[in-house]
Amino acid sequence: MMRLFSVSGFLSLFLGTLATLFTFQAGLIPFALVCSMAGFIASVSHIFIGTRLEMKMGIINRGTVGMLFCSVPVLVLLYFIFFRY
Q1: pLDDT, tens only, 11-57
Q2: Distance of alpha carbon 49 from alpha carbon 66, whole angstroms
Q3: Residue with the larger pLDDT of the pair 85 and 55
Q4: Which of 22, 34, 57, 60 has the fewest Cβ atoms within 10 Å of its own Cβ atom?
C-alpha cells in the first residue's frame, strides 16, 4: 500500500507537469487534457490512500501539487472560451 502511495504521488506530479508543458503548444491541447485526467486520477488516489492510512500530510504534498498542475490545461481552455470570443 505504501508503494502505491509513493508511485501515485510521483505519477501525479509527472502527469501534471506533462499536462502543463503540453498546454503551451496549441496543437497538443488534446494530449494535455488526457494527461490532466490521468493526473487527476493519480492525485486523488494519492490523497485517498494518505487519508485512509491516516498519514500526517501537510496541505502542500505531492497529490495537491499534482492536482494544481493538472488543472492548468482546463483553466487555460476556460480562459479562451470565456474571454477570447
Answers
A1: 999 999 999 999 999 899 999 999 999 999 999 999 999 989 888 88
A2: 15
A3: 55
A4: 60
Nearest alpha-carbon partner for 19 in 61, 65, 50, 60: 65
Q: Is 24 helix (H, G, I), strand (E, B) or coil?
A: coil
Matching residue, cell 508511485: 7
* Maximal CA-CA distance, the chain: 47
User: What is d(CA 7, CA 66) in angstroms, rounded to the nearest whole number?
Assistant: 12
- Residue 2, classed as helix, strand or coil, is helix
Element (H, E) at 27: none
Q: Which is nearest to 37 in space by CA: 19, 22, 49?
A: 19
